[in-house]
Design brief:
alpha/beta; seven-stranded mixed beta sheet; four-stranded antiparallel beta sheet; 14 helices; 17 strands; binds pyridoxal-5'-phosphate
Length: 408
């Protein structure tokens, strides 16, 4: 079956609007994706028909809400090929998932002198929680270097860094700044041989390519619903069940307990022990709709489409004079970071917006990486399956206009 990508755009109401007098070209998908009608409808349906709190009531609406919420957990497990829905914790997003592991697993398992291995291309979400943990426990952060503008991990250095002192290796699957796709299965296998726990930040890969946690061999994996056509405020932390059930709760409150005494509490098993308080019920249900929507298209196809657009954009951008491109030439995920000589990244984004093209400019929450590359910011175009080649052409026209405007 061939996919009519142009037709798919009709499913996304937000794509059909003019910005500054031009049809919107939305190329800020790494920040958040647009939402198809099916996801918006799932949210509305829940609030119009089934709205009730979960797990606590035995009335009809509460039973429906609970069934739909738990069905979303089963769906999320399928989406990443987890062994069981008990390995799926609903979070607010990638950031909360990583903080949960740092606070719960990290506080229990790390001691002074232990190493936490990260890579130099991590998002702040996969740096700051570990810095906080290191401050609390006396553990030390160690970084696997990035080679330079081509943005690959320097794997020759891994043997030196992956020592028995390392207790956790946390790595990004797809870099939100470079577009690099890291060989996470291979990295996890090397860590596992030494008994090192692994965590994958899948914020930019989930919903963009098939994810199989069993094949990856990771211990934890975190992602956000809003980057895969779902709503904001919902995400998933996957954890191997053996690990989760040995971890203390992250937050205390309702819904995560078996029994509470004035001085003592016994907790539910995972995943519920990690979900204190009323969860984002509508978010989980709408994320379920997003996963169905993406799987109906096919994640292999989505991945190929994103990569084709990114390669085309890379090629066309490299034809501009004075352009500096970041990230690998080939095998990149669906985004391109770049700079134009003599123009600040924020100015690139501002001029592009005048032409209806939505880009992102800044440090993309990867300040240490950009400092290493010797820049403060880049402009970034990030694609999803509803983007087209003609939108890449609009990007290139907007960049040519930017260069004319600044006389470079
Ligand atoms: C690689 C990466 N990790 C983590 C995050 C944080 O995601 P969230 O803000 O949805 O928690 C992002 C968001 O841009 C990201 O790109």
């Amino acid at each position: 079956m061939t996919i009519n990508w142009q037709k798919i755009r009709e499913d996304f109401p937000a794509l059909h609007q003019a910005v500054n007098g031009y049809p919107l070209v939305y190329l800020d998908n790494a920040a958040t994706s647009q939402k198809p009608r099916a996801v918006i409808d799932a949210l509305v349906h829940y609030y119009e028909r089934d709205n009730a709190n979960v797990h606590r009531g035995i009335h009809e609406l509460s039973s429906r809400a609970t069934a739909a919420f738990e069905a979303a957990r089963i769906r999320a497990a399928q989406f990443i090929n987890a062994h069981s829905a008990d390995e799926i914790i609903f979070t607010r997003g990638t950031t909360e998932g990583i903080n949960l592991v740092a606070n719960s697993w990290g506080s229990k398992n790390l001691k002074p002198g232990d190493h936490i291995l990260l890579t130099e291309m991590e998002h702040h979400s996969n740096i700051v929680p570990w810095q906080l943990l290191a401050e609390r426990t006396g553990a030390k952060l160690v970084y696997l270097p990035v080679t330079g503008d081509e943005g690959l991990l320097d794997l020759d250095r891994l043997d030196l860094l992956l020592t028995s002192q390392v207790k956790l290796f946390a790595m990004v699957h797809v870099s939100n700044t470079l577009g690099t796709v890291n060989p996470v299965a291979e990295l996890c296998a090397r860590a596992r041989k030494l008994g090192i726990t692994t965590l994958i930040d899948a914020a930019q890969s989930a919903g963009h390519m098939p994810i199989d946690v069993q094949q990856m061999g990771c211990d934890f994996l975190a992602f956000s619903g809003h980057k895969l056509c779902g709503p904001t405020g919902i995400g998933v932390l996957y954890g191997r069940s053996g690990l989760l059930n040995a971890m203390p709760p992250y937050q205390g409150g309702g819904d995560m307990i078996l029994s509470v005494d004035f001085h003592q509490t016994t907790y539910k098993p995972a995943p519920h022990r990690f979900e204190a308080g009323t969860p984002d019920i509508s978010g989980a249900i709408a994320m379920h709709a997003a996963m169905d929507y993406l799987d109906a298209i096919g994640l292999e196809r989505i991945c190929q489409h994103d990569q084709e657009l990114a390669s085309y954009a890379y090629e066309r951008l490299s034809e501009l004079k004075g352009v500096r491109l970041f990230g690998p030439k080939t095998g990149r995920a669906g985004l391109v970071s770049f700079l134009l000589n003599g123009v600040h990244a924020h100015d690139i984004v501002t001029v592009a917006d005048q032409w209806g093209v939505a880009l992102r400019g800044g440090h993309h929450c990867t300040q240490p990486l950009l400092r290493k590359l010797g820049v403060e910011s880049t402009a970034r175009a990030s694609f999803y399956f509803y983007n087209t080649k003609s939108e890449v052409d609009r990007l290139i026209e907007a960049m040519a206009e930017t260069q004319r405007f600044f006389g470079v």
